[in-house]
Amino acid sequence: MPLSDPLPFTYTVIRKSIKHLYLRVREGEVCVSANKRVSQASIEQFLQSKSIWIQKQLTYTDKQNRLTDNSAAVYLLGKAYPIQIHYSQHCANESMVLEKEVAYFTLIERAEHTRLRTLRDDYYKDSCSAVITPIVDSYAKEMQCHPTKLGYRHNKTRWGSCSAKNALSLNTRLMMLPHPMITYIVIHELAHIRHKNHSSAFWQFVALYCPNYKELRRNMRVFESFL
Q1: Splitting the chain (227 residues) into consecutive groups of 10 residues, what average pLDDT does each group show?
Q2: Residues 137 and 110 in one domain
Q3: What's the CA gap between 91 and 60, in Å, rounded?
Q4: CATH code (residue 165)
Q5: Which of 68, 147, 201, 219 is the most buried (most CB within 10 A)?
């Protein structure tokens, strides 16, 4: 049945092997996870039923985590660095660096949240190999779970994943988190090399190398809005 009114927002559909529809609103983007058997009409009817809530979330998320706000900060390894912006018409490339407890952005023209976010994410990606790869190498050896490949990219819905072929993909925004949380995610994804689900055996294996994983999972919720 067609909807009487068009949806007042755009959205992305991710097809997964799940039973129910799942809805996320982050950084001004609406994302629906659905089984491939769920029709487009059913998805739109679901979104229509959640329309008022979604619009409230879009308004709220538009105001939070804005890097152009006076109180904004860049998080690195769990620490917040206040932002300072310097404008230069002569710089070859816009950039972000951390110096003297401050995140300095060098820009050619007016600051926009999306541009600052891109520069911050570039910094995170450039830092992953030096910070996260040694953690992966260390625990891969200790757990005897060796990934066939390791890659870093920004994923809007998860901190990491392990493919059927044991390739690990880790979110570049892991660089926001304190070391213990990064370590937990690494252990979690490496454990999927041995256990391809979230069975009790999987969690027992995770607990061998990260006994306080439940506490870390709870504390990580603070950072989920930054994904």
Answers
A1: 60 87 78 89 90 76 66 91 87 86 89 87 96 98 98 90 96 96 97 95 97 93 79
A2: no
A3: 35
A4: 3.30.2010.10
A5: 147
